[in-house]
Structures are given as structure tokens and as C-alpha cells.
Design goal:
Blueprint: H1 12-18, H2 30-50, H3 54-74, H4 79-93
Helix pairs in contact: 2-3
Protein name: Phosphoribosyl-ATP pyrophosphohydrolase
Pfam families: PRA-PH
Organism: Saccharibacillus kuerlensis
């Protein structure tokens, strides 16, 4: 028996069941869900940093995006609203396309 104690994607129980294995799950309350989504984002970020290829990195970024969308819902927004917030910030402050690296700021 392997113990996981972590938030999983919705179809994972079906996948486990299709292999003939049994499992135990429970439904988290809203506070636990938000906490576990944050832990899942950390887990996916760690996996992204450990990725050894572009393909693996993109898989982990997709996982992070899925978690971020779920987190947006816990904060009262849908993915489209989150995207609009991102666009608005990009218009006001820019993106990261120019690869600008700030070294220091001098007081006048």
C-alpha cells in the first residue's frame, strides 16, 4: 500500500480503478481544498524546476495552469477573469518579453 495524502485530478480514481487496484479518497471541504491547491501548486512548481526537457517543462506548466485556474475559482473568479487581470497588468506594467533584468535603482 502506498500512501499519498494529496489532491489529485478528478479522473485519477477511474484510472486507478481501471488497473484493478482499490483506493481510499474523501472530498475536501472548501478550506482544505484551498490549502491543498496551494500545496499542489508548490508540487507542480518543484516538478517544473526538475524537468529535464522542454516537453517535460511544458507538461508541468500545463499542470500549474490547471491548478492556477482552480485557485482562481477559490478566490471568486473564473479563468477568464484571471486572464483579464493578467492582460490589464500587462497593459499597465508590461510583460516579460524584453528580458529586462533590474540591477539597482539610484536615489536622485
Amino acid at each position: 500500500m502506498t500512501t499519498h495524502n494529496k489532491l489529485i485530478r478528478d479522473l485519477i480514481p477511474n484510472i486507478i480503478e481501471s488497473t484493478g487496484k482499490s483506493f481510499t479518497t474523501r472530498i475536501l471541504d472548501e478550506a482544505e481544498y484551498a490549502t491543498e491547491l496551494r500545496a499542489k501548486l508548490r508540487e507542480e512548481a518543484d516538478e517544473y524546476f526538475a524537468a529535464s526537457s522542454d516537453a517535460d517543462a511544458l507538461e508541468e506548466l500545463a499542470d500549474m495552469l490547471e491548478v492556477i485556474h482552480a485557485l482562481a475559482v477559490t478566490h471568486g473568479a473564473d479563468p477568464e477573469t484571471l486572464e483579464q487581470i493578467r492582460v490589464d497588468k500587462a497593459v499597465k506594467r508590461g510583460g516579460f518579453d524584453q528580458r529586462i533584468y533590474l540591477i539597482d535603482v539610484h536615489e536622485s
